[in-house]
Task: inverse folding
């Protein structure tokens, strides 16, 4: 069964909807940066920063068992509206607490946890909408646009936050937080106006009505039944583990001075190379149709990213700044290629009525890797202080070996053939109306 059988092309309407989500994301990301900076200046505590970083991830994991099922069972448009509204209300409450002068670290932690919790419901709903509005041949362009816009936001929102902090000052946090409310209102306009298709699950009798756990397990079953999908999921999780381990400790690698300069400019250029490479390659891929050889493109992206990390590691080991920067630039180019190819693979293989659950399974496993990687590698670096010199070399090498093993010894390579056969089959089928109807 395919999620892309005779899908009506609603790409323009999806782009209008997505523009609203981007406006809202600009506000949320700016406020997130301001809050993290407030914690940094107010507490001067690395522990508090780690707690703040983990709270959002932990709360999202708590919703993992039910968020995808809810996204498939109920109206996705309503889910997004409720999620956006609750997150905005939480920010308004914190604004009021700052206004009356009683806001503290506990309130901040509560907001971060709540936003992560609600975001865990919103993300599967937003992702599940894409294949119901965008035909297969345009999926790669839409996903490229997503990578491009996220890279631009990641680069621009810290600058916007810094400008706002310069204008209002840290003492006017209530005014700084207002940006989230403004962008929420603006982002809601396209959400309300666009008609989003509603995919109906098969109705069951009262004795057959499934529980949330059963429906969540249906998502896992769909992944297991797709040739190569479970191998793809696990290999991506493992490589994400090593990618996180390698890139999350870049500030420590730079600050410990391995002959790279040990200042903020070295780190800033390195991080800019990561985001800048993503912006450039996403712009190029927007003009391409990635409908064939997806696994080969995925493999190229992952292997190139790991090789880039190894090159950066060699730069650290040898004290060569330009080699360090060059490796990070390669990583920046490579990650979007892998990510976009992976997204198209999942969107092309998973039926529309299961998209929410499958996205939740993928997201939950991916999110689990980040804190696990940080904890394990952080513990190792505490025991072996000199390990920073070898972190990128070892992380990149192990990630490359892990993926190549999966590629050559599992069913990942079968995925391209499955997609091509499905396209041929659907091309010769008579047009049918799938169980999708628009709701305002």
Result:
């Amino acid at each position: 069964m395919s999620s892309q059988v005779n899908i009506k092309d609603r790409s323009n309407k999806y782009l209008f909807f997505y523009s609203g989500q981007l406006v809202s994301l600009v506000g949320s990301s700016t406020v997130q940066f301001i809050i993290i900076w407030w914690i940094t200046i107010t507490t001067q505590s690395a522990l508090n920063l780690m707690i703040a970083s983990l709270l959002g991830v932990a709360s999202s994991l708590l919703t993992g068992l039910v968020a995808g099922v809810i996204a498939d069972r109920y109206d996705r448009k309503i889910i997004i509206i409720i999620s956006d509204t609750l997150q905005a209300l939480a920010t308004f409450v914190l604004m009021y607490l700052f206004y009356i002068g009683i806001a503290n670290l506990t309130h901040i932690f509560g907001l971060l946890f709540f936003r992560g919790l609600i975001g865990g419901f919103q993300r599967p709903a937003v992702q599940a909408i894409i294949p119901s509005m965008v035909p297969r041949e345009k999926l790669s362009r839409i996903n490229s646009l997503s990578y491009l816009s996220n890279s631009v936001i990641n680069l621009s929102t810290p600058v916007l936050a810094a400008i706002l902090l310069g204008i209002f000052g840290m003492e006017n946090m209530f005014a700084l937080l207002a940006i989230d409310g403004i962008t929420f209102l603006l982002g809601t306009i396209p959400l309300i106006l666009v008609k989003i298709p509603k995919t109906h699950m098969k109705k069951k009798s009262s004795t057959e009505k499934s529980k949330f756990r059963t429906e969540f397990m249906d998502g896992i079953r769909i992944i297991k039944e797709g040739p190569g999908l479970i191998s793809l999921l696990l290999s991506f999780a493992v490589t994400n583990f090593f990618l996180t381990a390698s890139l999350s400790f870049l500030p420590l690698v730079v600050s410990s001075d391995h002959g790279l300069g040990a200042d903020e400019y070295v780190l800033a250029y390195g991080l800019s190379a990561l985001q800048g490479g993503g912006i450039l390659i996403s712009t190029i891929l927007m003009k391409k149709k990635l409908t064939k050889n997806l696994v080969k493109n995925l493999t190229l992206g992952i292997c190139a990213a790991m090789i880039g990390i190894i090159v950066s590691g060699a730069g650290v080991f040898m004290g060569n700044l330009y080699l360090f920067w060059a490796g990070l630039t390669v990583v920046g180019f490579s990650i979007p290629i892998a990510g976009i190819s992976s997204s198209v693979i999942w969107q092309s293989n998973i039926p529309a009525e299961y998209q929410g659950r499958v996205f939740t399974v993928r997201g939950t496993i991916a999110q689990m890797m980040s804190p696990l990687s940080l904890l394990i590698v952080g513990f190792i670096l505490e025991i072996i202080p000199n390990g920073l010199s070898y972190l990128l070399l070892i992380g990149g090498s192990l990630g490359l070996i892990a993926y190549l093993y999966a590629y050559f010894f599992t069913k990942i390579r079968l995925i391209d053939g499955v997609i091509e056969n499905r396209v041929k089959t659907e091309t010769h089928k008579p047009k049918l109306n799938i169980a999708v109807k628009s709701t305002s």
Observations:
- Confidence is low (pLDDT under 50) at residues 1-6, 204-209, 430-440.
- Residues 24 and 127 are 16 Å apart (CA to CA).
- The domain at 11-198+214-427 is CATH 1.20.1250.20 (Growth Hormone; Chain: A;).
